[in-house]
Amino acid sequence: MTKSTADIVIVGGGTAGWLAAMILQAESKSAGRPLSITLIESSKIPTIGVGEGTTSLFRGVLQRLGLDEKEFIAKTEATIKYGIRHRDWRRKGHVYDGPIDDVYHLADKVEGRGSWIDTFCVAAGRSVAEPHLFGALMQQNRAPVAPTPNGLRPLSQFHHAYHFDQAKVGAWLRSKADGITHIDSAVEGARLNSDNGRIVSLVLDTGERVAGNFFIDATGFRRSLICNEMGSQWRSYSDVLPVNRAMPFWIDLKEDDEIPTYTHAWAQSSGWMWQIPTQQRIGCGYVYSDAHLTPEQAQAEIEETLGHKIEPRNDIKIDSGRVEQPLNKNVLAIGLAASFLEPLEATSIHGTLVSILLFAERHLSNFNEITTEQEAAFNRAICGQTDDFRDFINLHYVSERRDSHFWCDVAEQYIQPETRERLALWSQKMPGPEDFNNDLDGLPHLEELLHLPVLDGLGLLNQNLARKVMNQDKTFQRFARETTDFLTRQSRQMADMAIGHRAWIKSLTHPNP
Hints:
Blueprint lengths: L1 E10 L2 H17 L6 E5 L9 E3 L3 H8 L4 H8 L2 E3 L1 E5 L7 E5 L16 H9 L8 H8 L4 E4 L2 E4 L6 E5 H11 L4 E4 L2 E6 L6 E6 L4 E9 L16 E3 L8 E8 L10 E6 L2 E7 L3 E8 L6 H12 L9 E2 L3 E3 L3 E2 L2 E3 L5 E2 L6 H17 L8 H25 L8 H10 L2 H10 L21 H10 L5 H9 L2 H24 L3 H9 L4
Parallel strand pairs: 1-2, 1-13, 2-10, 5-16, 13-22
Antiparallel strand pairs: 3-9, 4-9, 5-6, 7-8, 11-12, 12-13, 14-20, 15-18, 15-19, 16-17, 17-18, 20-23, 21-22
Helix pairs in contact: 1-6, 1-8, 4-13, 4-14, 5-14, 8-9
């Protein structure tokens, strides 16, 4: 018996599934072509509530969907993220920050000079994070608002990112969805058209069927549709990314502790530890190589690092990689169903959003008639995005550390040729936009502004080259110095004006009567 029929059927809820439903619904309405959307998820399948970080794209999507940021923060225990603090990656005791705002939007346009503020900072031996407002806000753990006689005002034109509990965000998005058919059931299989291999309907655990024209797989690691039904193959990144286990745990925040405004990525003897703060606790985990540590040794190392006992919530075997065909006939895989990488640069939700937005842009009007050529072009773009994520993460492992077997093995076996080629290129020229591809129709991607803090933090940029570039034009060098000094002073002054992160969060969650 057929229970319902929809234009688009999404299998799996959570953050990925509900974002897909709401974005596609909004985009279809905007185009004057409303769609019927059904989302199927089972309350019997437990959700994994882990600390998750986003990029700034998430905030733009909230606004695009007309969702209120203050309510979002209050209801999901979300906190603000301005960037990532990397500890002990270059060498033990070394720390560098990667803020996500763009100082070039605050400076005069200078054609043909590339990333000239960063070049000046490298030449002067200053951190490229110095002139960033988000860098100053990270240092002081301040909110993105400052008090005025007329109330709080935003400090910045830039979108910040968030940390949150993924399970709470999925539930909140579900509560805000309207006009989307929701079925609480498990999908047990699919019926395919024997002539063209397309899915015709899904079989539920009740025996009922849900028919549709297009299907989205948001089933996470199960990959129920894209792999089990459509036969898309998995491409592992295990030859490039050296960690293959994750041990998640929580650290409770004391009520008077300030809440960090950054993701903390802390390199360890055989991998690295993430720390992602929500309002009540910090979601943590040790991502490590089981060729170098046992789970018992990993736990012991973290307890020694932190100075207290932890209670691991799990110990997960991970296989970083992606499916070869995220778009396969009339099925699109998103989220963990499409790819999985260690959570070093908040690639998961960002990649999900880009995939949905790109699909909406290219194929919302013709999802019933996507040609083989169009499918191949979409897959090149999305697979290219994920491969670029892989390459960016690989870059983080170019380290001076040789204090453990893991770091020695990483240096000898895991730094891929493409990474070495890029570093050779950047030893001769400063990174610029011409060094990066973006086949995502203008959607945000990993380009020079995200690479520069990592390259600088790891000591991989050529100071003599940067000085040579700056010394070619003394007038411009003086202009670059004055601009960088001004932005640095301004960012520190604005951070001094901002209220504390916890105080602002408390004002949203417990407003004065």
